[in-house]
Amino acid sequence: MDHTPLHETKTHGTATFPFTVYRGIIPEYFRSFPLHWHDEFELIYCVQGKVLVTVWGQAYTLCAGSLIVVLPRAVHSIGQCGSALGEYFNIMFHPMLFKGPEDDPCYEKYVLPFLNGEKTLDCCHPSDSPFNQAVTPCILSMLEHRRDSYSTHELMMKSCLFLLLHHMNQNSTAVKYNSLPQLSYGRLKDALYYVQHFYDQEISVKAAARQCGFSESHFMKLFREFTGISFNAYLVNYRLDLAARQLSETGLKVIDIAENCGFRNHSYFTRAFRQKYGRTPVEYRKAAHTSHTQSAPTASSPPA
């Protein structure tokens, strides 16, 4: 069964140059990108409208010109902010891009502390913040030449990334382990894994709490702090996201999609789907197919 992995293992860029830029429009491309994490650094830069981003359970609203920095292995999500449309870019780069020869002192001094949890950085940086203003020229340059990054602008991209890393270190702080929310929230990843692998089966709060080694009450409290919603609401939303993807990408019957995604009551599935997406599953499928047909690029059109 195809689903969105919590731990994203996709290679971004190439093996020799692990860097890439993605363009996203919410809700035109998709309504949300659920909780996940990966081994890359990620910058989420809003160019217009609004985008809702959560990092370690904290929600941030990005407006035009604002920036989110997601450190490696931080659990985060991207979604629609109310009914607003939002356009943004993801700039993703693997830590190994900064690694030189063996025992590289710069890598050990400036990169490893972010990976080991010894150093952190504020996530959200409004357009008028000093960090944002310092790195925006680098970001805009990478966006402008994103299609040329693997052919003629590799050196420029790497120079921008090293300058970005410099500013990240200049604005970083040492981690106080006794107050780091990741230490409490990290165990909740087991519950998210549990949903990822067993979403098509009956899942109870008790079973999810057991995966994390928590009591039900403590689990429910931490989960709401971590995600901003209850575990049951997260489970339903996860299943609905998968259903929406299957509706737009496959020709499976609606009743089969509901079953595949863990909905045993088809009336409830339709009501929940309409509440989230504003359309019935059938209407959503028709709109998605129409949108894909109209937005299909011609042979001479470059990708976004």
Chart the SSEs and their pairings.
Blueprint: E1 19-26, E2 32-36, E3 41-55, E4 58-63, E5 67-70, E6 76-80, E7 86-93, H1 105-110, H2 112-115, E8 119-120, E9 124-125, H3 130-144, H4 154-170, E10 173-174, H5 181-185, H6 189-198, H7 205-212, H8 216-227, H9 231-249, H10 254-260, H11 266-277, H12 281-295
Antiparallel strand pairs: 1-7, 2-6, 3-4, 3-5, 3-6, 3-7, 5-9, 8-10
Helix pairs in contact: 3-4, 6-7, 7-8, 9-11
Task: Provide the descriptors you would attach to this structure in a database record.
single chain, Arc Repressor Mutant, subunit A, Jelly Rolls, disordered C terminus, alpha+beta, 304 residues, eight-stranded antiparallel sheet
**What is the helix/strand order?**
EEEEEEEHHEEHHEHHHHHHHH
Strand content: 15-25%
CATH structural architecture of the largest domain: Sandwich
Distance linking N and C termini: 28 Å
Task: Indicate the CATH topology of the largest domain.
Answer: Jelly Rolls
Helix content: 40-55%
Number of domains: 2
CATH superfamily descriptor of the largest domain = Jelly Rolls
- The geometry reads as globular
Q: CATH class of the largest domain, please?
A: Mainly Beta
Gyration radius (Cα, Å) is 20 Å
Low-confidence stretches: 1-5, 296-304
> If you average the pLDDT, what whole number results?
86
Helix/strand-derived category reads alpha+beta
Strand elements, count: 10
Number of helices: 12
InterPro entries: AraC-bd (IPR003313), Homeodomain-like_sf (IPR009057), HTH-like (IPR037923), HTH_AraC (IPR018060), HTH_AraC-typ_CS (IPR018062), RmlC-like_jellyroll (IPR014710), Tscrpt_reg_AraC-type_HTH (IPR020449)
Protein name: Right origin-binding protein
GO molecular function: DNA-binding transcription factor activity; sequence-specific DNA binding
Keywords: DNA-binding, Transcription, Transcription regulation
